[in-house]
Amino acid sequence: MSKTHTVSTDSPEKIKLESSIIYARWLSKLAVGGSTAMVEVRTSFVGEGATIEIKGNTENGRKCGKLKEKIYGNRFMGEIEISEKVEEGD
Description:
Blueprint: E1 20-26, E2 36-44, E3 50-57, E4 63-71, E5 75-81
Antiparallel strand pairs: 1-2, 2-5, 3-4
């Protein structure tokens, strides 16, 4: 992202930074229905204490779990509770 500085170098200037997800990944190799799975999300330019909402889906698009927490330091690590409705192979 390129930004042209338009004021004197010793003057404050407000700019808007676009937040983004750098990556999101499962830290657990597998999960069983009724258990939890670890996830990690790294972001860029997200405010301290901002709400993060994660929804997990199986490869077939079936919902398997979700969470809503706060993110700090552009990094979130947490556990998603896996629905008991998830079946082997999902």
